[in-house]
Specification:
Strand content: 25-35%
CATH superfamily of the largest domain: Gcn5-related N-acetyltransferase (GNAT)
Number of strands: 11
Radius of gyration: 18 Å
Distance between the termini: 40 Å
Order of helices and strands: HEEEHEHEEHHEEEHEHE
Strand order of the largest sheet: 1-2-3-4-11-5-10-9-8-7-6
CATH class of the largest domain: Alpha Beta
């Protein structure tokens, strides 16, 4: 259960390289609030165990918190979340949801990749290119380029961020990240531009990150994979499923 809990709660927090993100921790509750970054990926309830008698008031307060700063936000329901009908309550409040798998493998797990796909490690020298391509793949507003460059620079200098760019026919077409947290690693942000999919880019990004994590002394690697996209691919490549859960999102009001 220790690895499962880390995968579902603490792993995403390990990738926050901005001191302006407020992390709220109390018994039965983990939440991130980024007042100056209006992205659901940076505003989220990651863990919630709430008494049934208090849940409606808690939902009200949480919606009000994010409404006040005008941002969409997510509410994850990993294993052990309470009450059991929280997902139903969130849907009734206008949240949309999707299924995710917490998955894991050993850092030295072998992944075959096509030799025609080249990968380069993220460095300060190619940071601008990495962030621009990543933001393009994730449809992030160009206005956030400078902000994300700053965060990636901090991550690199801390030694906790690993990034990989993938190239096909000399063109950069994919990016992915990994976070080092002691002897564990967290895979995040893997994306391949639509025109380059089906060429083995995703496998190459995965293989490079696992090698880099293993070289840092990481033994166990976890990731949170969407059921409709990366989860089936990772399962075929040998990742084991820790558990399935739902993530819900509420768009910014007005």
């Amino acid at each position: 259960m220790e690895l499962s809990r880390w995968a579902a709660v603490d792993a995403p927090l390990s990738g926050l390289f901005c001191d302006r993100a407020q992390i709220i921790r109390r018994p039965g509750w983990v939440q991130v609030v980024s007042e100056d970054l209006h992205l659901a990926a940076r505003n989220e309830v990651l863990w919630s165990v709430v008494d049934t008698a208090e849940i409606e008031a808690t939902i009200d307060r949480t919606i009000a918190t994010y409404r006040a700063i005008g941002t969409p936000f997510k509410w994850s329901l990993p294993q052990g979340s309470q009450p059991l009908d929280l997902g139903t309550r969130l849907r009734e409040r206008g949240f949309s949801g999707w299924q995710v798998r917490a998955m894991a493998c050993a850092a030295d797990h072998p992944i075959e990749a096509r030799p025609s796909v080249r990968t380069h490690a993220l460095e300060l020298a190619n940071l601008e290119e990495f962030v621009a391509l990543s933001n393009q793949g994730w449809d992030v507003a160009p206005s956030l380029h400078t902000r994300f460059c700053l965060e990636h620079r901090r991550g690199l200098r801390s030694g906790r961020l690993i990034g990989v760019l993938a190239f096909s026919h000399g063109e950069a077409v994919g990016t992915a990240s990994a976070i080092v947290s002691g002897t564990r690693g967290y895979l995040a942000g893997g994306q391949v531009l639509p025109r380059a999919r089906g060429q083995g880019i995703y496998r190459a990004l995965l293989r490079s990150r696992l090698h880099a994590l293993a070289a840092r002394g990481v033994r166990e690697v976890v990731t949170l994979a969407r059921e409709q996209t990366s989860a089936p691919i990772l399962a075929k490549l040998g990742f084991r499923t820790l558990f399935n859960y739902q993530i819900y999102q509420r768009d910014a009001d007005g």
